[in-house]
Each structure stands twice: as structure tokens, then as C-alpha cells.
Write a structure and sequence with these properties.
heterodimer, A: 205 residues, alpha+beta, Butyryl-CoA Dehydrogenase, subunit A, domain 3, 5-stranded antiparallel beta sheet, 5 strands, 57% helix, B: 633 residues, mainly beta, Methylamine Dehydrogenase, Chain H, Immunoglobulin-like, 7-stranded mixed beta sheet, 5-stranded mixed beta sheet, 11 helices, binds copper (II) ion, metal-binding (chain B), WD40/YVTN_repeat-like_dom_sf (chain B), Nitrous_oxide_Rdtase_Sec-dep (chain B), metal ion binding (chain B), Nitrous-oxide reductase (chain B)
């Protein structure tokens, strides 16, 4: 036990070599890109919408495909089942999410400059919490939209949760939800943190 | 085209045994020759979901509409209402289109003309003339709707010799078919036809940006009956040509009296000179239009003799050769524009008619091509060939344009390359871009004037038939036959990718002053006995869906279709109020009804819009007007 703790403390104190610092800079860059790139896409295809209706989720905005028109169209369709209108204004997270990502970006830069293993571990853990919270929040949003349906709506359907990853059939629509370039950047960020830690795992304190 | 029908129908009857007529169900010689191995079917087959290569715009004659078909499938795609109401699109019911139609409920659409840039179609507008009420309409190829109707054009009567579009759409040129005493509204005895009546050529100016038309100028002519024409191109750019069929200036029994002369006069018009003369103040105002007297302004108008009772006069893609078809003469007369210019320069005139020089026929004629019986119109493929419709013979003749070899010149029968039967008497024919500098030269559509026995019987009124002919090979090949609404006179063919049609009206482009987009902005406002409603239509509601009025009220509804989705069209029909308006996505329309009947009148969406389309309805209530008794209460 004592030995294990000592090893851990030693590990956390390890300095970062140049490779790790460069990887951290790249990680900061990936995160900066994620602020501006679409994180997730929800796509709806039906016989009468062969090209499909698309909804792009960014850290700071909600954009309908076809020049924004698809968002109106999705809302128009959703009113039949009594789903609440999707509106960017309702997504409080879109006001702070870019800043949170910016904060992580700064922390990555800080880690690159201070150059201690502990900074990477702190950042990694914090970011995992953040990611878990964001995905949970995303799921909660999907669940809420699919479960709080207006009882006076023209059509009564079983409450449902739109799928978060993959495809499913809802009425005549096939709904597909997949991460986009911004989402992949978040994964790249985590991967780069691991790589940075790995590269300096044997540096002497 | 109409009048040729009268004249040559008689001839046709006489010549029936020799023409391409066949009893129903029997194949003609032409058909058995070409319908082999199913290849024509393959050439015209456009699989479900596939799109045609070309648009075909047919005029609709006295139906007042324009029909859109695809080539090579020949499938009817759409109808564009122009001069007559069309409940299918609500045309003629809303205030704007009602205003455009004016007091007329029909028009006689003859010759559609596409807008051009540098002598080729630019895909912006289609102009069509109304022979009956002297109008010209402009259809936008952005939304395939009629946007302007100009007319009745002052001083012009029987707007048949139209719509001929100049190389850069500076003008749509028009010639009057009939002559009347001018200014219009003046009485004169038709016995004094020569003295009191006049014809008119008009330059309808087109705004280069908006396409808005206005009457630019007019040229006074003797009371000839002007027929078809065409604009010049290349070397002849700035000029225009029309035939006439009554140089005799007869005013009754034209069938006999106007066919006595061996030649009639064609008009050779320098429209740039006309434009300049008006700028220089050489015109006199008549009914609000600057009118040029060609006797006083030399250089604007010349007459050119053409053989007996001509019909079409067409300029080839090079702009040098001008082919005129003489209905009663079995030849296409080919004139050389270079020789015409030389004759004008040398003042090589054979006479003068009312102060207008008559160009010496022999000096400008390149040759008379013996195309066959009853030549009407000529189109071109851009490969040096011309195609002339032969009404009496029921044939399309393909022939070679000049320059001809000495041998060909000696016997012009040698330039006739091919003939193909059509069934039955042919009127107009059209080739893709056949009146431009660069024809497409793939397909020819032959429009038949009389159609018999080639379809399931639908009673005495036989459908108009059109035949699609492949002109890519040495021999022409009959590919397909289609039937259209009455009564096509002429058509235009344009490459599909030259046209950029929109799918919805973008919200940002809606400039209607009473458009509203949100439920909160809708409402009913009363002002005296005027009730004004701002309404939106969205799947599957009208907002508001209740309108209260009183007997005698004047109800105005501005209705906006707030959808921005393709084909999400809504309509509003009001029960027993004769009101039907169709609103495209993003469009706002204004309708007016005076409440003459009391009661409660449901209104409903006429265009199926969603699973709850039936539920898209509302009530218009009309209370009885207050009497002295009820008002006192
Ligand atoms: Cu509707």
C-alpha cells in the first residue's frame, strides 16, 4: 500500500518531456476547434423526406439543415405529436458550453507550460466528468423532449427517447444520431492527453 | 396560324387523297419506315424519378394558358395560366392576378418567345402574346408564373405577329394582324378600308433587370394584315421581319380577295433606327405612344416582296439567310440579308408604297427551294439545315441552307435532304433553340393543326397531337406522339439546366406589405364596413380560423403561407363565395369578397397538406345588416 502510494505520488510529480508538451498543445488545438465545429447530428429520413431533415448541434448553437429550414420543418412535424418546439433559446448549456471548452483549452495550455504529470491527470479527470455530464445532459434533453408531450396534441404516441447514438425508427421516420467532427475532436483531446501522459511516464522527477 | 387553317383546310380537303392521312388504326408509310426495334421508345423513355433534358413550352391558343412538357418524354408537367383564370393555382381569384387579367376572361395565346442574351436563351422569361385582346404577358422562369400582362396595346389590333424577342431582350416585337381605324375607338366604314384603316408594328421595351414591359414606340403601316415574323441576329441584329397576307388591302372575302396578287410584302424593319428616331423626336404621339410615320422617317421600314400569301419568315442561326414560306406556293423563298443591305445602300428599289421603298425582289432572293405543298414555318438545327412544315403535304421537309454549289443552285431540288410524314396537317414546328444563334439540334416537335384517329376516341373534339422527331441523323426519325390541351400554335424548347426554378418563395424575399409570419401578428381589424384580416396558413391551421362580418361588409384577407417546405401548398376556398386562392410556400395573397349573403360560411384548405388537412378549416360569419329596429336595441 505504502509502495503503491509512493509510486503514484512519484508518477504525478513526473515532469513532461517535449513530446508530451507538443501533444498537449495539439490537444488544446483540438478543443479550440471543437468550439466551432458541429458536435452532433440528428438526421431524420422518411419516404416524403428522402433527402432527410438534419439538425446540427454545436457547442453554442442549434442549426437546421437546408439553410435552417429543417429546424422549422422538424418543429412543424413535432407539433402533431405535441412535442415542445426546439429552440436554441431553451438550451442554457449553449451559453456556457463554449466557455467551458475554452477553459479546458486553457488548462491544456497551462499543463503544457507547467509541465507536470499531475496537470494532465487533473485535466483528464475533470474533462471526463465534464464529458459524462454533457452526454448525460444530452440524453436527459432527448428524454425530456420525447416524454413531455402535450396531451392535447393531434396525435397520441407512446412517449419515446430519440436515440443518442445510432439509428431507430420513430413512426415513419428513421432517426439517426451520430457525433460529428466537433464530437470527434473531444475524443481526440482525450486521446492526446493519454498520449502525453504515456510519453512522459518514465521521466525522472 | 388560325387563318391559314381556314385557307388551307379547304385545300387540304381537296388534296386529302395525296396527303399523309390514314384511316384510324392504320399505320402510315412514315411510321412503318421508322418504328423498328423499339429504339424510339428507348430514346424517349424517361424512367420514374429521372428528369427530361429539355423544357417544352407550348402556347395554349384560345385556352389562354401555356403548357409545360418535358422532352424527350413529351410528358405534360405543368400548366401556366396566363390570360384565363385557372382555379388549380387560384389564378384570377386573388386581387393581384385579377388586376392583371383586367376585364378579360380569355386570351388567344400564340407565340411564346424566350428571353435571350447574346442571341441565345438566358432562361429568365417567357413572353407570350394574346391575339384577341392585344396583350403581351411575361412569365418568369424562376417561379413559372405570369408576372405582367401589358395591354391592350394602344393602336394595335390583333396581336398575332408576336412575341419576337431581340438578341439581348431589348424588345419584344409585335405586329398587328388586323387593321382598324386609329386611334382605337374611332368609327370608320370598312368600305373606306384603304383610306381609314392602319396596321401597326410595336416595340415593347423590356427592362433589362426586372423584365418589366412598356410600349416603347410604334411604326404606322398601310392596312396590310401582318403575319408572323422573326428578329435578326448576328449581321442582321437590330432588324426584324414580318410577312403580310393582304397587301391587296381587301376588307372582305379575304379568302379570295387577298390572294389575287402574286406577291405580298414583307416588312423589313430597322428597329434600332426606330428607337433612334423616337429619341430624336421624329415620332408623333398617338394614344400615348410615340408613333413613327415611315414615309417621314426614312430608313426605318422597307417592304420586300415575298411569294403569294406567305406565313412564317424565319432568320437562320447565322443571321444571314431569311426563309419565308408561301402557303399557296410550294417553295421556301430564301433571302440574303447581305443582298438586302446592298440593295438598301444602292437604293435598288422596284417601287415605293405610300412613301416606303419596295426592295427589288430579284436582287435579294437567293433562291426558291421547292420544299413542297403549303410551307408554313422554318426552324434550324445549327448544322446548316432548315426544317419547313408543309401544311398541305403533312410533312416536315429538311433542306440545306445556302451557300449552295453551282450545281445545287441550278436545281434546288438537290438541297432537299429528307422528308418525314406527320399525322395530320402540321402547323408550327419547333427545334430546341431553333430561333437562336445556337440551336440544340436534337429534337423537333411538329405540332399538328388537325388530328384524327390516332388516339382513343374522346368525342367530336379531337385532341391536338404533337410528334417528336429525332433530327440528329441523316434521316429524320419519328420518336413519339403526345396529345395536348387546345390549341398549341407555337412552342419553345430550352435546355433544362438553363432554367433555375425556385422551390419556395424565401421568407426574406416576401415584400407583401401585409404579410405576417407568426400567430401573434395575425388578426381581424374592422374599419367602418371594411374588414381586413391578416391570416397565416400552416399545417394544419388557418390563424385566425374565425372571421366575423356583417352583411354589406367588404372583406379583405391577406393570407401568408408561412411554410418554407417544397410543395407545402395551402389553399383557401370559401363555401358559396366563389373564392379560391392557392398560396405557395412563402407567398402572400390578397383576396376580397363583398358579403352579400348572410349566414355562416365555412372556409377550408383546398390543397392537401398533411394528415390533418381536412381539419384545416374555419368559419366566416355574416350577420344580417342592422335594421332601424335592431339598431335601436
Ligand atoms: Cu393546408
Amino acid at each position: 500500500m505504502h509502495n503503491f502510494l509512493r509510486r503514484e505520488i512519484l508518477f504525478l510529480r513526473r515532469p513532461l518531456n517535449l513530446t508530451s508538451r507538443v501533444l498537449l498543445l495539439l490537444a488544446a488545438g483540438a478543443l479550440a476547434a471543437a468550439i466551432f465545429l458541429p458536435l452532433w447530428k440528428i438526421h431524420l429520413v422518411a419516404p416524403q423526406y428522402r433527402e432527410g431533415l438534419a439538425l446540427d448541434i454545436f457547442s453554442h448553437k442549434l442549426v437546421g439543415g437546408n439553410g435552417g429550414q429543417d429546424l422549422h420543418e422538424i418543429n412543424t412535424l413535432n407539433h402533431y405529436i405535441g412535442m415542445k418546439t426546439l429552440s436554441q433559446a431553451d438550451f442554457a448549456e449553449m451559453t456556457w458550453m463554449p466557455f467551458a471548452l475554452g477553459g479546458f483549452c486553457l488548462l491544456a495550455l497551462r499543463a503544457a507550460v507547467i509541465g507536470r504529470m499531475a496537470s494532465i491527470v487533473d485535466l483528464g479527470v475533470l474533462f471526463l466528468y465534464f464529458t459524462a455530464f454533457s452526454l448525460g445532459n444530452f440524453y436527459y434533453r432527448l428524454h425530456t423532449y420525447g416524454h413531455t408531450l402535450d396531451p392535447r396534441a393531434p396525435m397520441t404516441i407512446e412517449p419515446f427517447t430519440p436515440v443518442m447514438l445510432g439509428s431507430q425508427k420513430i413512426a415513419n421516420f428513421v432517426q439517426t444520431s451520430l457525433p460529428q467532427s466537433g464530437g470527434y475532436m473531444l475524443a481526440v483531446f482525450i486521446a492526446l492527453l493519454f498520449a502525453a501522459a504515456w510519453c512522459s511516464r518514465k521521466e525522472l522527477p | 396560324m388560325k387563318k391559314s387553317l381556314l385557307i388551307s383546310a379547304t385545300l387540304a380537303t381537296a388534296l386529302l387523297p395525296f396527303s399523309g392521312c390514314n384511316p384510324p388504326g392504320q399505320k402510315s408509310a412514315g411510321e412503318t419506315k421508322t418504328a423498328s426495334a423499339g429504339t424510339p421508345a428507348a430514346r424517349t423513355y424517361v424512367a420514374p424519378g429521372d428528369k427530361d433534358e429539355y423544357y417544352l413550352f407550348y402556347s395554349g391558343g384560345h385556352s389562354g394558358q401555356v403548357y409545360v412538357a418535358g422532352i424527350p418524354s413529351m410528358r405534360h408537367i405543368s400548366t401556366i395560366p396566363v390570360f384565363a383564370p385557372y382555379p388549380a393555382t387560384g389564378y384570377g381569384f386573388d386581387e393581384e392576378s385579377k388586376k392583371m387579367l383586367g376585364d378579360y376572361s380569355w386570351g388567344d395565346v400564340h407565340h411564346p418567345g424566350l428571353s435571350k442574351k447574346d442571341g441565345v436563351y438566358d432562361g429568365r422569361f417567357l413572353f407570350v402574346n394574346d391575339n384577341a385582346n392585344n396583350r403581351v404577358a411575361r412569365i418568369s422562369l424562376s417561379d413559372f408564373k405570369t408576372h405582367q400582362i401589358l395591354g391592350p396595346i394602344p393602336n394595335s389590333s390583333g396581336n398575332h405577329g408576336s412575341s419576337f424577342v431581340t438578341d439581348n431582350t431589348e424588345y419584344v416585337l409585335v405586329a398587328s394582324r388586323f387593321s382598324v381605324p386609329l386611334p382605337k375607338g374611332r368609327y370608320a366604314d370598312p368600305k373606306d378600308y384603304e383610306k381609314e384603316f392602319n396596321g401597326m408594328l410595336s416595340g415593347i421595351k423590356v427592362d433589362p433587370q426586372s423584365g418589366e414591359m412598356s410600349v416603347g414606340w410604334q411604326i404606322l403601316t398601310p392596312p396590310f394584315d401582318w403575319d408572323l415574323g422573326s428578329t435578326g441576329k448576328g449581321p442582321s441584329e437590330g432588324w426584324a421581319f414580318w410577312t403580310s397576307y393582304n397587301t391587296e388591302m381587301a376588307h372582305e372575302t379575304l379568302e379570295a380577295t387577298s390572294t389575287q396578287g402574286e406577291r405580298d410584302y414583307a416588312a423589313v424593319v430597322n428597329w434600332r433606327a426606330a428607337e433612334a428616331a423616337v429619341k430624336e423626336g421624329k415620332a408623333t404621339m398617338l394614344d400615348g405612344v410615340p408613333v413613327i410615320d415611315p414615309a417621314k422617317v426614312p430608313g426605318v421600314l422597307y417592304f420586300m416582296p415575298v411569294p403569294k400569301s406567305p406565313h412564317g419568315i424565319d432568320t437562320d442561326p447565322s443571321g444571314r439567310w431569311i426563309a419565308a414560306g408561301g402557303k399557296l406556293q410550294p417553295v421556301a423563298s430564301v433571302f440574303d440579308f447581305e443582298k438586302i443591305m446592298a440593295a438598301i445602300a444602292k437604293k435598288d428599289f422596284e417601287s415605293e408604297f405610300r412613301g416606303v421603298p419596295v426592295i427589288r425582289y430579284e436582287s435579294v432572293l437567293e433562291g426558291s427551294v421547292p420544299v413542297g405543298l403549303g410551307p408554313l414555318h422554318t426552324q434550324f438545327d445549327g448544322r446548316g439545315n432548315a426544317y419547313t412544315s408543309l401544311y398541305i403535304e403533312s410533312v416536315v421537309a429538311k433542306w440545306k441552307l445556302p451557300p449552295w454549289t453551282a450545281e445545287e443552285k441550278a436545281d434546288l431540288n438537290k438541297v432537299i435532304l429528307d422528308k418525314i410524314d406527320v399525322h395530320y396537317n402540321i402547323g408550327h414546328l419547333v427545334l430546341g433553340g431553333g430561333d437562336t444563334k445556337k440551336p440544340y439540334g436534337d429534337y423537333l416537335v411538329a405540332m399538328n393543326k388537325l388530328s384524327k384517329g390516332r388516339h382513343l376516341s374522346v368525342g367530336p373534339s379531337q385532341p391536338e397531337s404533337s410528334q417528336l422527331i429525332d433530327v440528329t441523323g441523316q434521316k429524320m426519325a419519328m420518336l413519339y406522339e403526345a396529345f395536348t390541351e387546345p390549341e398549341p400554335h407555337f412552342a419553345q424548347i430550352i435546355k433544362a439546366d438553363t432554367v433555375n426554378a425556385i422551390e419556395v418563395y424565401p421568407k426574406a424575399d416576401n415584400k407583401h406589405p401585409h404579410a405576417v409570419w407568426e400567430a401573434k401578428d395575425t388578426g381581424v381589424v374592422r374599419n367602418g364596413n371594411k374588414v381586413e384580416v391578416k391570416m397565416i396558413a400552416i399545417r394544419s391551421r388557418f390563424i385566425p380560423d374565425r372571421i366575423d362580418t356583417q352583411e354589406g361588409d367588404e372583406l379583405t384577407i391577406h393570407i401568408t403561407n408561412v411554410e418554407q417546405t417544397t410543395d407545402m401548398i395551402h389553399g383557401i376556398g370559401i363555401i358559396e363565395q366563389n373564392m379560391n386562392v392557392v398560396i405557395d410556400p412563402g407567398e402572400t395573397k390578397t383576396l376580397k369578397v363583398t358579403m352579400t349573403k348572410t349566414g355562416v360560411f365555412p372556409f377550408y384548405c383546398t390543397n392537401f397538406c398533411s394528415a390533418l388537412h381536412q381539419e384545416m378549416q374555419g368559419y366566416l360569419t355574416v350577420k344580417p345588416a342592422p335594421t332601424a329596429e335592431t339598431a335601436a336595441k
